[in-house]
């Protein structure tokens, strides 16, 4: 006999999910794909192979973190013009996201959480058009009670507060699920929400050493972890 034991605290009534690297593998698919595309431009600009250009980007990100403007760093290092940065930005903006798919357990888990009775929200940061496209491609348009996109890198706090007010929720009734220790995790913690940290992707791996052992976070590697462990 197996028994499901939910990890979610009994006081939680609503769950706010992040999108990228929480519901699908953004770092391993779209981000890597965009680095391979921009490697073509970099290889021409600094006269190296595309493999070397990819390696350079990964090295710089490993050193400076996932938020660094890698094109700007390379432009500075190699004395490249503003045109170079513009070409990189244009290439990233035309990135095809058609192949993006959810983690295998995401949709079933969301449906199960909804069936149990949780209010479900998606709050994501990024270029609005790009995030809307991702949501459509991933089939998430109707999966949540509300979807909020913010184009402000510091915008999640405002979005979280709007949800609390609009749905008459106390922070402790909300579980915040995300991979970004420096974004939604900090915001959720500051507001007094429960936290589930998704241990996935470049942001998690760059900042994970800053998590104190004493933090009362749930640590998950997939959304279905929230619904419990199979106990034989
Ligand atoms: Mg994320």
Written description of the protein model:
With 232 residues, the chain is of the alpha/beta class. It folds into two domains: 3-24 and 100-231, HAD superfamily/HAD-like (Rossmann fold), CATH 3.40.50.1000; 29-93. It is built from nine helices and eight strands. The strands form two sheets. It has a six-stranded parallel beta sheet, sandwiched between helices. It has a two-stranded antiparallel ribbon with strand order 1-8. Strand 3, helix 6 (128-137) and strand 4 (146-150) form a beta-alpha-beta unit. It starts with a strand and ends with a strand. Bound molecules: magnesium ion. Magnesium ion binds next to loops. Magnesium ion is lined by residues 18, 20-22, 178-180.
Give the SSE map:
Layout: E1 3-5, E2 14-17, H1 27-46, H2 50-64, H3 70-78, H4 82-93, H5 106-116, E3 119-125, H6 128-137, E4 146-150, H7 156-166, E5 174-178, H8 181-191, E6 194-198, H9 201-207, E7 218-220, E8 229-231
Parallel strand pairs: 2-3, 2-5, 3-4, 5-6, 6-7
Antiparallel strand pairs: 1-8
Helix pairs in contact: 1-2, 1-4, 7-8
The protein binds magnesium ion.
Summed up, what is this model?
It contains nine helices and eight strands.
Question: What is the percentage of strand-forming residues?
Answer: 15-25%
Quick one: how many beta strands? 8
Oligomer: single chain
Domains (count): 2
Mean pLDDT: 93
Total helices: the number is 9
Helix content: 40-55%
How do the SSEs run, as a string of H and E? EEHHHHHEHEHEHEHEE
Distance between the termini: 6 Å
Rg result: 19 Å
CATH class of the largest domain: Alpha Beta
Main sheet properties: 6 strands, parallel
Helix-strand makeup class: alpha/beta
Q: Please, what is the CATH homologous superfamily of the largest domain?
A: HAD superfamily/HAD-like
Q: Do you know the CATH topology of the largest domain?
A: Rossmann fold
Provide the spatial order of strands within the biggest beta sheet: 4-3-2-5-6-7
Q: List segments where confidence is low: pLDDT < 50 over at least 5 consecutive residues.
A: none
